[in-house]
């Protein structure tokens, strides 16, 4: 098994904040307004964010500064 197999598919909002470099208040505002969709499993209070969602968020908000 290589190291890529051990990579987490889901992260907590706190981990997402660290990965994106944004604050907790910003992350929870994005979650609340639907900018960042979350995963919630049945009978579990915790919420998670997929890394795919974070990559999509980055790609959708990347601007070309050479224009």
Could you walk me through the main structural features you see in this protein, from its secondary elements to its overall organization?
There is one protein chain. This protein is mainly α. It has one domain (8-60): Multidrug-efflux Transporter Regulator, Chain: A, Domain 2. 42% of the residues lie in helices and 6% in strands. It has 3 helices and 2 strands. Strands 1-2 form a two-stranded antiparallel sheet. It is globular. The chain starts with 9 loop residues before the first strand and ends in a 7-residue tail after the last helix. The mean pLDDT is 91.
List the main descriptive attributes of the protein structure presented here:
2 strands, 67 residues, two-stranded antiparallel ribbon, 6% strand, mainly alpha, Multidrug-efflux Transporter Regulator, Chain: A, Domain 2, single chain, 3 helices
Low-confidence stretches: none
Number of strands: 2
- The rough form would be described as globular
CATH topology: Multidrug-efflux Transporter Regulator, Chain: A, Domain 2
Q: In the CATH classification, which architecture applies?
A: Orthogonal Bundle
Total number of helical segments?
A: 3
| Spatial strand sequence of the major β-sheet | 1-2
Question: What share of residues are in beta strands?
Answer: 5-15%
Distance between the termini: 44 Å
Radius of gyration, in angstroms, nearest whole number: 14 Å
Q: Give the biggest beta sheet.
A: 2 strands, antiparallel
SS class: mainly alpha
Estimate the helix proportion, in percent.
Answer: 40-55%
How do the SSEs run, as a string of H and E? EHHEH
């Amino acid at each position: 098994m290589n190291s890529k197999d051990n990579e987490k598919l889901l992260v907590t909002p706190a981990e997402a904040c660290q990965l994106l470099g944004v604050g907790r208040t910003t992350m929870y505002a994005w979650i609340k307004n639907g900018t960042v969709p979350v995963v919630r499993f049945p009978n579990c209070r915790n919420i998670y964010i997929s890394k795919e969602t974070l990559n999509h968020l980055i790609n959708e908000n990347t601007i070309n500064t050479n224009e």
